[in-house]
Design brief:
Layout lengths: L2 H10 L4 H22 L7 E5 L2 E5 L12 E2 H8 L3 E6 L4 H17 L3 E5 L3 E2 L11 E9 L3 E2 L4 H7 L20 E8 L8 H12 L3 E2 L4 E4 L5 H20 L12 E5 L15 H4 L15 E10 L8 E7 L12 E5 L4 H10 L9 E6 L11 E3 H8 L8 H8 L5 H12 L1 H9 L5 H8 L10 H7 L6 E4 L10 E7 L2 E4 L2 E4 L1 H13 L23 E7 L13 E4 L6 H15 L7 E7 L9 H11 L3 E7 L9 H7 L1 H10 L3 E6 L1 H19 L3 H14 L2 E5 L1
């Protein structure tokens, strides 16, 4: 029979359902083979065949391609734990809550708990999570409802429509045997409040997991996060008590860390400078900070004061990246690791009875293999307090309850317990006065020292010192081997004293020392051992990459709203556009709305804006609002209304990009004004305007960098 006859016979026959399924199967396999050969798919894929349904399941992220990270389920089983608490944390709050929750579950109910960084594990085998165990997620949201750096991979994995689980997962409900609880940390001034916790919880349930209790939510805007967490966890313990047959027991505090003082300093004792030049042989070594983002040492090239005010400061810094391996793109953030001020270090050491042995070396180890150590394994008390602990940060009520157990004085013990139990009293005495732990102890009396508190307990009551994030205010196109930061110095006048922000005042002190200016008596003294040496002013940083970027198409118009130091990334944006214009590129219009108090005091980069306007000619407009130059206060929101037609045209007719940078309250007000002016100018209904703004956000044409 000829091939023509065969073809005719096949074409005249009626294909069965099985023929169709097999035909599609072979076509799909052939396509996969072709793509694999061409390098379009790095890993194979498989076909999920069920009765009456053919499903193509991508395996590019997992399944046949197993994650190089440790399997979370294997680790739980190996450590014989029945409760794992996974955190997504940017500033340390979620991690701190997780550690306290694990501690309480262990001591109060006998749960075999462990705390885990979401970034440390692979989740392809999460569908094997044992039914008799429980996972608890403590997740922070930041920015536009984005996951924290250490939660990005897990978030992207679990929120997929079909997460790439390993072979063997149930097609419809892969997590049907898993039970979990979740608490989210967010800020209701953001449009996407607690998006990460809500999305993760919804995704887990969509894949079959069962939520124990309610989804807890803390709201930083209302300063109720800790109270909400305490209420949620008490409810959770009741739910878990029923689900896992837990019985509350009387418990004594068991330290998670073991401190052993050394008779003489070890060869590798950390004194703030990291591993040490003699071991690494280079200036730009890593500092030994815990966590996934290891900072590098950079040198302060130049610094200057930007404000012309006797009582306020704003610092411009330029940092040298040469030889560090660090690189950035316009719009990224610099994460600066601060150092605690001398006066606060001295106060803390004195209050806790460590003054006389501040330079005594000790080793620290974990009481359990699953607990991470927040310090170098060998260091000194001075170094630990100066470089690694958030001694000037907010106090938690839970920490006061723990410290009260070790207070040697009955008056102190009772005072600490009362503060830990009464939210209103705690707010009046501590929160409203911005007291740190050592300052609080000083106010309690009689006597200023709680000598009985072991340093191991202090490590659990005081959070690790975390980096502070600043928008990079230079263009990577212009400053390839250096970056600039613009930092307003935090200082709040209280009754009888000033509250000083840790990182901004540290950077102010660096600027003062570099320029041989008179330091503030309360500021950090820069003559420190460690990575600030007498020849160079060095500091520790890493880069956090951001999606806050100017459009790739330089011809697209952009509208930027950045009052105060919110203008920092826009300095970089406009610098970049000026360089592109000089290079012959087509550059779209750039409009900047900037606001500050007084044109004569805090109009930062005024000369630079004028120079950039000359370069870009009519392609760059600057609109300014000075709130205290006139009787009627004018803010950037008012400027937007004054230029409503221009704003509407740029966004809706020219398909321009909108960027907002600054504090969350300002961003919320700007959003309100934008809705009103777009509705009025475009004649669109409010729902249509909301739809347009949502579409802009989804497509990347509306971006916010807010705090």
């Amino acid at each position: 029979m000829s091939s023509i006859h065969v073809a005719q016979l096949v074409s005249n026959s009626q294909p069965s359902v099985l023929d169709i399924i097999l035909g599609y199967t072979f076509m799909a396999l052939g396509l996969l083979a072709t793509l694999s050969y061409l390098g379009k798919i790095s890993q194979p894929a498989f076909l999920n065949l069920t009765l009456g349904k053919l499903t193509f399941v991508s395996q590019t992220k997992g399944s046949l391609h197993k994650s190089s990270k440790r399997c979370i389920v294997d680790h739980i089983n190996e450590e014989d734990k029945d409760c794992i608490i996974l955190f997504g944390s940017q500033t340390g709050n979620a991690q701190d809550f997780s550690e306290k929750l694990a501690k309480e579950g262990s001591t109060r109910f006998g749960l075999r708990t462990m705390v885990a960084d979401l970034n440390d594990y692979g989740y392809e085998s999460l569908f094997k999570f044992p039914a008799e165990k429980v996972a608890i997620f403590v997740l922070s949201s930041y920015g536009e409802g984005e996951p924290t750096d250490n939660a990005v991979e897990f978030y992207e994995f679990i929120t997929e429509d079909c997460p790439p689980f390993s072979l063997g997962a149930h097609a419809e409900a892969p997590l049907q045997h898993m039970r979990y609880a979740a608490f989210g940390l967010g800020n209701s001034t953001y449009e996407n409040f607690n998006t990460v916790a809500r999305s993760v919880s919804a995704s887990l349930q969509r894949h079959g997991a069962r939520l124990v209790g309610d989804l807890g939510e803390g709201d930083d805007a209302q300063a109720t996060t800790e109270n909400s967490f305490i209420t949620w966890k008490e409810s959770l313990w009741e739910e878990l008590g029923r689900a896992m047959a837990l019985e509350e027991r009387k418990s004594n505090f068991e330290p998670s860390f073991i401190i052993t003082e050394l008779q003489s300093p070890a060869e590798t004792t950390y004194l703030g400078e990291g591993v040490g030049k003699k071991l690494m042989g280079a200036r730009n070594h890593f500092i030994d900070f815990p966590g996934p983002n290891k900072p590098s040492i950079v040198t302060l090239l130049r610094s200057k004061e930007l404000f012309r005010s006797p009582d306020r400061n704003c610092v411009h810094l330029e940092l040298d990246l040469m030889g560090t391996g660090l690189s950035y793109q316009t719009g990224d953030h610099a994460a600066i690791w601060p150092i605690n001020a001398d006066c606060e270090v001295d106060r803390f050491l004195r209050v806790f009875g460590l003054w006389e042995k501040r330079h005594t070396s000790f080793s620290v180890s974990s009481a359990k293999p699953t607990i991470k150590i927040p310090l170098p394994k060998t260091t000194s008390y001075d170094t630990a307090v100066r470089y690694y602990l958030e001694i000037a940060g907010p106090i938690s009520r839970q920490s006061l309850a723990t410290l009260a157990e070790f207070a040697s004085d009955k008056f102190q013990k009772d005072a600490l317990l009362n503060l830990s139990k009464d939210p209103g009293h705690f707010h009046k005495i501590v929160t409203s006065q911005l007291l740190n732990l050592a300052q609080l102890i000083e106010t309690i009396g009689p006597g200023n020292v709680i000598c009985a508190v072991p340093f191991a307990v202090i490590l659990e009551c005081v959070k690790p010192l975390k980096p502070r994030y600043y928008s990079i205010s230079s263009s990577s196109l212009i400053q390839k081997s250096s970056l600039s930061c613009t930092v307003v110095v935090d200082s709040v006048q209280l009754q009888g004293r000033d509250f000083k922000g840790v990182a901004s005042n540290y950077l102010l002190a660096l600027k003062n020392q570099q320029n041989k200016e008179q330091p503030d008596a309360q500021n950090l003294t820069c003559g420190l051992m460690g990575h600030l040496d007498k020849y160079n002013l060095n500091l520790a940083i890493h880069i956090r990459h951001s999606s806050f970027k100017p459009p790739a198409d330089t011809s697209r118009p952009i509208l930027m709203i950045g009052p105060g130091t919110g203008v920092a990334p826009f300095r970089a944006f406009v610098q970049e556009r000026a360089a592109q214009f000089k290079a012959g590129h087509s550059v779209g219009n750039s409009i900047l709305f900037f606001g500050c108090r007084k044109s004569s005091e805090d109009f930062i980069y005024q000369d630079e804006w004028q120079g950039l306007q000359k370069i870009l000619a009519g392609a760059f407009k600057l609109y300014t609002a000075f709130s205290r130059d006139t009787e009627r206060k004018v803010y950037v929101q008012h400027l937007l209304m004054q230029h409503a037609a221009e704003v509407c045209s740029l966004l809706l007719e020219q398909n321009g990009y909108l960027y907002v940078c600054g504090d969350s309250l300002m961003a919320r007000d700007v959003h309100t004004v934008l809705r009103e002016l777009l509705c009025k100018e475009s004649k669109l209904s409010m729902p249509e305007v909301d739809g347009s703004l949502k579409s802009m956000r989804n497509s990347g044409r509306l971006q916010e960098d807010v705090w």
